[in-house]
Amino acid sequence: MAEPYLKNRTRFTSSLKNELVPLWNQLAKDTRIPKSRLLDEAIADLLRKHGIEPEPEK
């Protein structure tokens, strides 16, 4: 099966602490915000914390 083409995203693999997964799932469900968008926000916040300003969204 062919991989779907992602024009504005990059696929990567990682792992989370077991206790974070249900909380993340619940946040996505409660806010109706896709997990990928929540992850974008979290990574952008982490970059800012370390003095790296992410590019603004288009």
Features:
0% strand, 58 residues, single chain, mainly alpha, 2 helices
Report on the structure:
This protein is mostly helical. The protein has 2 helices and no strands. The chain has helices spanning about 20-30, 35-50. It is globular and about 35 Å long. It starts with 19 loop residues before the first helix and ends in a 9-residue tail after the last helix. The mean pLDDT is about 90.
Blueprint of the fold:
Blueprint: H1 20-31, H2 35-49
Number of strands: 0
H/I helix tally: 2
How far is the N terminus from the C terminus? Answer: 32 Å
Strand content: under 5%
Biggest sheet layout: none
Global outline: globular
How helix-rich are the residues, as a percent range?
A: 40-55%
Q: Please give the radius of gyration in angstroms.
A: 14 Å
Order of helices and strands: HH
* Overall average pLDDT: 92
Structural class: mainly alpha
Uncertain ranges: none
